TrEMBL record:
Superkingdom of the organism of origin: Archaea
The entry's keywords: Cell membrane, Membrane, Transmembrane, Transmembrane helix, Transport
GO cellular component terms attached to this protein's record: plasma membrane
Extent of Low complexity compositional bias: 485-500
Family: Belongs to the binding-protein-dependent transport system permease family.
Residue ranges of every copy of the ABC transmembrane type-1 domain listed in the record: 274-472
Subcellular location(s) of the protein: Cell membrane
Membrane topology according to the record: Multi-pass membrane protein
Region listing for Disordered, in residue ranges: 481-500
Record's protein name: ABC transporter permease
InterPro entries: BP-dependent_transpt_permease (IPR050366), MetI-like (IPR000515), MetI-like_sf (IPR035906), OppC_N (IPR025966)
Pfam families tied to this protein: BPD_transp_1, OppC_N
Transmembrane parts of this sequence: 23-47, 121-140, 173-194, 276-298, 310-333, 345-364, 399-426, 451-471
Length: 500
C-alpha cells in the first residue's frame, strides 16, 4: 500500500492543499450520499432536537413555568420537520411506492412501475440496505484515504487493531447483524410496508382503495377496518391467518404476516420496535458509560477515599433488584411527563443507566488503575499538568477501547432485559411496539397457523443480542493482541450472552 510521505509537520489542512485530489473525490461522493437523503437527515436531526427540548423543558418546568416557551419551540420544530418532509429523498415511500390496488385487468395501480406491492416493497428494501452498506463502506474508505495520503506515520498501533479486526469473522458477523438492526431502526418509516401512523396510531383516520373481487369494483376503506379483517387469529386453518409474504383481502402485502387483533402489520411493528430497543439501549449505555468513565478516571487518579466511596456506592446499587426498582419507578412516575416518552421507554432507559454503570465501572477500573501507574502519567503530574488534562489526554484514550468492548456486550443485555420486561407487561406500554411485547401477544399462537407472531421477534431478539456480544468479542480481540481471534473465544462469547 503506497503512502504519501511527509518530511515536515504540517496541519491537516496544508496536507490536503498539497494533495487535494483524494480528499476531493472522497468528499464529493460523501456529499452526494448526504444530499440524496438530506430531507430524511434533517428530519432525524429535528426529531432529536425535539426530544432534547421536551426533556430539558420537562426538567426546567418543575422550577420555572416554561409551558408557553416549550410549546412555541415544539411548534417551530414541527413546522421545520413538515418542511423537511417535503424535500425529495432517494429512499422514500413516494419514490418507490408499494401501496396500490389491483385492476380489473389483473395488474396493479399506484405501485412502483405497476409492479406488485411485494416486488415494489422488496426493491425499496434492497435499495435502503444497499445505501446503508455503501455509506458505511465509504466512511471506511475515508479512513483509508487519510492513512494513504494524509497521515504522517507509516505505522501506528491502530493499524494492528484494524488488521486483527479484518480477520475476526465472528466480530464481522456481529457487525453486519448490528448494522442491519440499526438500519431497520433508522429507516423504519421507509422500510415499513404500511406507515406507522396508518397501521397503529390512527388506523381509522386514513383510507385507501382496494379491488373487490366479488363486485369487480375498486372500493374504499380504512386501515383500521382492514386490520380487523386481516388479523391472524390462529387455529389450525391457514385461511384464518395472513402469514409470511402473503397479501390480505385488501391487496396489502405483509412481508412477515399480520398480528392478532387489530391485525397490524408485523414487519411495521418490528421496525418501529427496533427503534424503541435502540433508543433504550443507546441512552442507557450512554448514561452508564459516562458515569463509569468519569468515576473510573477519577478513582484511578486519586485512589484512596475516592475509590473506596465508588466501591461502596456501586455495591449498594448492584444490590438493588432491577425489576423491583423498575416497578417502583413505574408507579412513582406513572403520571409524570417522563413516563410519556415512548410509553415508558425513557423511564426504563434512565433506570438501566443508573443500574448498569457499576458493572461497566468495575470492568474499566482495572485498566484505568493500570494506566494511572505509567511513567507518562507520573511525568505529567510532576510537571504540574492539571488533573483533568492528564485524565483526558493520557488516561482516557487507553480506557475507551475497554469501554467499547463492555458497552457493546452490555447493550445486548439491555435489549433482552427490556424485551423480557415488556413480555411480563411492566416494560414498554402499548401502542408503542416492542419486541418482547409482540412475543407476549403471540405466545398463545405458537402451535397454530399464526406461529410467526411470536417466533420471528423471538429469533430477532436472540440474533441481535448475540450479534452485540460477537461485536464486543471482536473489538476485545482486536484491542488485545494476546487474546484469541475467533475460534473458542467466539463460542464462549456466544454461550455466555452479555450484560443482562
Amino acid at each position: 500500500m503506497s503512502q504519501t510521505q511527509y518530511t515536515q509537520e504540517l496541519p491537516l489542512r496544508k496536507r490536503i492543499q498539497e494533495n487535494p485530489r483524494p480528499a476531493l473525490v472522497w468528499g464529493g461522493v460523501f456529499a452526494l450520499l448526504l444530499l440524496v437523503e438530506f430531507g430524511a437527515l434533517i428530519g432525524m436531526a429535528l426529531a432529536t432536537l425535539e426530544f432534547f427540548v421536551q426533556v430539558v423543558g420537562g426538567i426546567l418546568n418543575g422550577i420555572v413555568d416554561l409551558t408557553g416557551l416549550i410549546a412555541s419551540a415544539e411548534s417551530a420544530i414541527d413546522s421545520a420537520r413538515t418542511a423537511a418532509g417535503q424535500i425529495p429523498t432517494l429512499l422514500s415511500r413516494d419514490v418507490v411506492p408499494n401501496q396500490g390496488h389491483r385492476t380489473a385487468a389483473g395488474g396493479w395501480e399506484g405501485t412502483f412501475l405497476g409492479l406488485s406491492p411485494g416486488v415494489s416493497w422488496s426493491i425499496r428494501f434492497v435499495l435502503v440496505y444497499a445505501y446503508l452498506f455503501f455509506f458505511v463502506y465509504w466512511l471506511w474508505k475515508g479512513y483509508d484515504v487519510f492513512v494513504r495520503h494524509y497521515r504522517y506515520a507509516d505505522w501506528t498501533p491502530r493499524d494492528d487493531v484494524v488488521e486483527r479486526l479484518r480477520d475476526h469473522r465472528w466480530g464481522q458477523f456481529g457487525f453486519v447483524v448490528v448494522l442491519l438492526f440499526i438500519g431497520l431502526a433508522m429507516f423504519a418509516p421507509t422500510l415499513a410496508p404500511i406507515t406507522y401512523q396508518d397501521d397503529t396510531i390512527r388506523p381509522y383516520g386514513a383510507s385507501f382503495e382496494y379491488y373487490d373481487e366479488g363486485s369487480g369494483e375498486v372500493l374504499e376503506t380504512n386501515h383500521g377496518t382492514a386490520n380487523l379483517a386481516s388479523a391472524s387469529s390462529g387455529g389450525s386453518n391457514p385461511e384464518n391467518t395472513v402469514s409470511i409474504g402473503e397479501y390480505d383481502d385488501y391487496g396489502r402485502f405483509h412481508p412477515l404476516g399480520t398480528l392478532p387483533t387489530p391485525g397490524g402489520d408485523l414487519f411495521t411493528s418490528l421496525a418501529y420496535g427496533a427503534r424503541v430497543s435502540l433508543f433504550v439501549g443507546l441512552l442507557a449505555i450512554g448514561i452508564s458509560g459516562f458515569i463509569a468513565v468519569f468515576l473510573g478516571l477519577l478513582t484511578a487518579y486519586y485512589k484512596g477515599l475516592a475509590d473506596l466511596t465508588a466501591v461502596v456506592v456501586s455495591d449498594s446499587i448492584q444490590a438493588i433488584p432491577a425489576i423491583l426498582l423498575l416497578i417502583l419507578m413505574s408507579v412513582v412516575f406513572s403520571d409524570h411527563w417522563i413516563a410519556d416518552f415512548y410509553n415508558g421507554g425513557l423511564l426504563i432507559a434512565l433506570v438501566f443507566g443508573f443500574l448498569y454503570w457499576p458493572g461497566i465501572w468495575r470492568a474499566i477500573r482495572g485498566p484505568a488503575m493500570q494506566v494511572s501507574e505509567q511513567e507518562w502519567v507520573d511525568a505529567a503530574r510532576s510537571y504540574g499538568q492539571r488533573s483533568t488534562v492528564t485524565m483526558r489526554k493520557h488516561m482516557l484514550p487507553y480506557v475507551v477501547g475497554y469501554l467499547l468492548v463492555y458497552a457493546s456486550m452490555t447493550i445486548g443485555g439491555i435489549i433482552i432485559t427490556t424485551s423480557a420486561l415488556s413480555y411480563l407487561g411492566i416494560g414498554i406500554n402499548p401502542p408503542t411496539p416492542e419486541w418482547g411485547q409482540i412475543v407476549a401477544n403471540g405466545r398463545s399462537y405458537v402451535t397454530t397457523a399464526s406461529w410467526h407472531i411470536a417466533l420471528i421477534p423471538g429469533v430477532l431478539i436472540v440474533l441481535v443480542v448475540t450479534a452485540f456480544n460477537a461485536l464486543g468479542d471482536g473489538i476485545r480481540d482486536a484491542i488485545d493482541p494476546q487474546s484469541d481471534t475467533g475460534g473458542e473465544a467466539a463460542s464462549e462469547a456466544a454461550a455466555t450472552g452479555g450484560g443482562g
